[in-house]
Amino acid sequence: DIQLTQSPSFLSASVGDRVTFTCRASQGISSYLAWYQQKPGKAPKLLIYAASTLQSGVPSRFSGSGSGTEFTLTISSLQPEDFATYYCQQLNNYPITFGPGTKVDIK
Amino acid sequence: EVQLVESGGGLVQPGGSLRLSCAASGFTFSDHYMDWVRQAPGKGLEWVGRIRNKASSYTIEYAASVKGRFTISRDDSKNSLYLQMNSLKTEDTAVYYCARGLHSSVWYFDYWGQGTLVTVSS
């Protein structure tokens, strides 16, 4: 199985900050990576797919990059509604796997 | 508007069975792959399995943790997805989500239901 690690596990940031999360795969997954945002008690929401394609309706402050084994999600200017947990997901191989998540909290 | 509504969750004893349903609307259900994902209380996301569309012969993939115990099916005439869960274990306790596939070389999960809670406990 492909293992995904995310760093940091927890991030404390302020509104307006530029924040970057990293997702590393245990083996190459091309660009078959997605990023999801999840708020407490809610279903995950697709933000980015194919490593860098912004899902329709997602604000342009979100961006993704990377290929192979290392990927990043960047929020250019953190907004109050962005405080949530972010998960990466690989779809290169079965089983489909998710990273453990990065929780973003208010500083 | 795309909607996915799960139902069928509840409390079940270890070794018991439960069948979850996911009612889809607002899109052509038969065109899409569909997935089940679960989330144990306070934990991360775990993919459960996938059923492909008719064009891909309705083939199915499962996570190792549920293979042989869970069965995914769909009824395109009813716009519905199902998850039959047998031989349930306490570690199957989770919120179960259905998710729609978005095709872009592979199938990502672009819409999710609100989830249904399954609790396995004696």
In short:
The complex is a heterodimer of chains A (107) and B (122). With 107 residues, chain A is an all-beta fold.
Account of the 3D structure:
The complex is a heterodimer of chains A (107) and B (122). By secondary structure, chain A is an all-beta fold. Helix content of chain A is 0%, strand content 50%. In chain A, strands 2, 4, 5, 6, 9, 10 and 11 form a 7-stranded mixed beta sheet that branches. In chain A, a hairpin with a 2-residue loop joins strand 7 (62-67) and strand 8 (70-75). Chain A is globular and about 35 Å long. The model of chain A has no long low-confidence stretch (mean pLDDT 97). In chain B, 40% of the residues are buried. Chain B is built from no helices and 11 strands. The model of chain B has no long low-confidence stretch (mean pLDDT 97). By secondary structure, chain B is an all-beta fold. In chain B, a hairpin with a 4-residue loop joins strand 7 (70-75) and strand 8 (80-85). In chain B, strands 2, 4, 5, 6, 9, 10 and 11 form a 7-stranded mixed beta sheet that branches. Chain B has a 4-stranded antiparallel beta sheet with strand order 1-3-8-7, with no helix packed on it. The interface between A and B is medium-sized, with 25 and 24 residues.
